[in-house]
Fold these 4 entries.
Entry 1:
Amino acid sequence: MTKHISLGREGENKAADYLKKWGFKIIDRNFKIKFGEIDIIGTAKDKTLVFFEVKTMTKNAADYAGVRPEDQMTADKLRKFRKTAQFYANKHRELVHKKGYRLDLITVLFPDFGDPAIGWYENIV
């Protein structure tokens, strides 16, 4: 496994743990279809279905490139994220209920030492 993939997986694990602390029930991870992938799918306390894209970086990479994890969410990635979420929601209508669904972004920034900084952006699309 490459360092990049390993870092991404570690970021997704930290994001899932973070969401569980906020009362989310994780129902699926790494859902893939031919035109996209969703990192985490969960339900909020109010039963809203939420799709999460997770963007992870190390502090060194962020400092070097001058970008933040959220800067990695390009227009093309947003389009694929929305299309994949719509597909999943249509296939799992029982999870949508009356609350519908939303698309959120979780950012994970690993420092040189200590716990990662986690950011959360709701309704990004």
Entry 2:
Amino acid sequence: YAPGALATVSRHPYFGVSQIVLRGARELERDSVLGAAGLRVGMSIWSVDPTAAEEQIRALAWVRDASVRREFPNRVLVSVQEREPAAIALVEGLQYLDRSGRILGPV
């Protein structure tokens, strides 16, 4: 293969992400999930790293689990499982807590 062929193919508009589907987000805003994962419409599907994106999404307080999948040529599927608030505590203001005691965010 020619050295520049891979670079040319990866930048071709055919492989530009035109749709990002987000499932399972009720409390989380779409922009915060996609921003944490570094996903955006227009990026090359070849530059989407599902494993890294999943780790970055799981770092969000409300996220219990996440999965990211590329669907060639131009679609990305993101699924999240959110933590369920189980209590409210007074910790620097009112905060939601899940069953494990993890702080999810302000009420």
Entry 3:
Amino acid sequence: AHTLGDEFARLADYLALMAVRMGPRLRVRLDLPEPLAALPVPPLLLQPLVENAIRHGLEPSTRGGEVTVRAR
């Protein structure tokens, strides 16, 4: 079983690595309400979406930008 909390933790690890690479050009907001953390989800549900957003949107830009991931 893989939970949304696990998915957000994996995503936070990936974003920490990207923050080292991009520095202040990458701003991140992760919002996971505690009641949703135990919900089951498929593994690697969010990371490919965030990777693409960074690779094709933020990384090429000299200004960078913000990635926001919210669970509702």
Entry 4:
Amino acid sequence: MAIKLFDSELKVMDVLWKEGDKTAKQISDILKEEIGWNMNTTYTVIKKCVEKEAIERREPNFQCHPLVSREQVREQEAVDLVD
């Protein structure tokens, strides 16, 4: 696993790691409350995470499921830092 997640993507992942599977709308509502993101911003970041295979999109209702754990991301960040 060599997924590089940017700060914005980590914000979406943090929601999923803390809350479990959520719909894109639920993630958008949470991030709007926490950091003021609008729906389009959140959906764009979710799409990038799906493309990187960090999130799996499930139906119905665009359910988001994390495919990587917080620990896997931290390990990769440590490897990148050492390299």
